Fold Protein similar to eukaryotic Peptidyl prolyl 4-hydroxylase, alpha subunit.
Amino acid sequence: MQVVDAAWQEWLATNVRRGCTQESMVDAMVQAGFDALAAREIVGRAAAENSMEADAVKPSGGERAYEYDACPVAAGNIVRTHDRDVPVVLRVDRPQVIAFDDVLSADECTELIERARNRLKRSTTVNPDSGQEDVITLRTSEGFWFQRCEDAFIERLDRRIAELMNWPLEHGEGLQILHYRAGGEYRPHFDYFPPAQSGSALHTARGGQRVATLIVYLSDVEGGGETVFPDAGITVMARRGGAVYFRYMNGRGQLDPLTLHGGAPVTGGEKWIMTKWMRERAYV
Ligand code: PD2
Ligand code: ZN
């Protein structure tokens, strides 16, 4: 029985959860240099081992499809916040995705990067079984977390973003800065915690489930680095000050699997982003 390293195990588990066909996974492994027979055996085993996990990331409404209810973000061409008018450049209804220009000024982007630059740590990802934060190769970035409203500058941005997302400021996690060097990427994943996976309880104990994400681009990227929703066919380019919002939990508590998304590999230059995750309840 051939064994694969941890990076391939992650890749297999993620793609089984996404519902990829075994054939497409075998093809990808053969292209990466695996023997076809060995790849078939490895993929078959991963499919069996991960099938329960795959069930766990389906919408919590069981067999019922995700029902799209009204998105909390204000309608119109511009969303007005207390200190900035933010232009809307794209709205998608299914999944609920909105792209914005000018959420932050160039100076604000620079200040965030400079504050985070010397405090970055290799990014981690939630282990679905244990709930612990693991360093994995599916996510090659470095990150830094601000405390929510930790000073006047961060408070202004936390408030602006809460108004833009039209969700209570107290339900937001702290702002996170992420840095990707050339080759860095974040392979497709869900931002919500899969309800049936044992590790999720640790995270939802504090503030409940994540309901929506805002990714703000702090830099232009010379090559690559787009945010991609592979099952919805949506690609958002990283442009300094712009942002993408997506919502994955509706008022009934269902979770939208069409929000599977990733950060494409950076092929030139570097990429800086900031993320805000909103929860069901106050995040304390
Ligand atoms: O860097 C990105 O574009 C990206 C894409 C998907 C970041 C995240 N998800 C994330 O931090 O969750
Ligand atoms: Zn994400």
User: Anything to note?
Assistant: The chain has a mean pLDDT of 87. The pocket of pyridine-2,4-dicarboxylic acid (ligand 1) is lined by residues 178, 186, 191, 215, 227, 261-263, 273, 275 (CB under 6 Å). Residues 124 and 135 are 4 Å apart (CA to CA).
